[in-house]
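## Example pair
The file below holds two records. Each record gives the amino-acid sequence first, followed by its structure token line.
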Amino acid sequence: MGEIRYRPNRGLLKDQVIQRIVAAAKANAGLWLMIKERAVEKRAIKAELERLGADAKDVDRRFPTALTPTIAELADELVSSMFGNCPPEIGSRVQSALLKAAESELDGSPQP
């Protein structure tokens, strides 16, 4: 995986940088598999909650054994390996982009 050094944090929120992070994740087969597993887990939990008619705040109580590392930890590790640190403001954006790309791939839809 390529490494980018000395990039200012303010540039990490740009769409091109997010796309590069997703591309780097896809290039690492083991990491990409773990991300797709988290996407499948998210779908399974959502389907079970809908089936039970439960509220999203019941997730931790009803599904205490989530896959580890979490998608947040995977995203943080990926960004940190590329940029040296993972500012908090980029974490959720990267997580969403990774899950969206994984779900798109699982559905067989092309991802730009």
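Second record, same layout:
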Amino acid sequence: MNQPPLVWPASSPVAAPQAPAISSDCGSLVRLATLGAVIGGSLAAARQFDRIQAGEQLPNLALVETGKSAVAAGVATAAAGAVASSVADQGALRLGLMFLAGSAVFYGLRQWTEGEGDE
């Protein structure tokens, strides 16, 4: 007696495993951090270039300052995105929260890093 092979029913209550939702949020935060670092680093590089041309800054120190600004802008942008996405999905409220949170984090990071060499 030949039995047909067992076939898993299409309406089975067991669903295929899916990636946790947090992975897409983390990916979004990484993209935001990268975008913030690129924009912040670009602005800092332009400012440092002007300072080098004016004789106010050495090129090596300008690179360090540009890197610090890029990292701070990336961290601030990621933090702002996390805060904003926990409150609103879109709209003016989200943009306002991103602006406020990003400004606060960036300000705090700049205050912390600028005071390092004073001691």
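Notes on the second record: Residues 25-114 form one domain. The radius of gyration is 24 Å.
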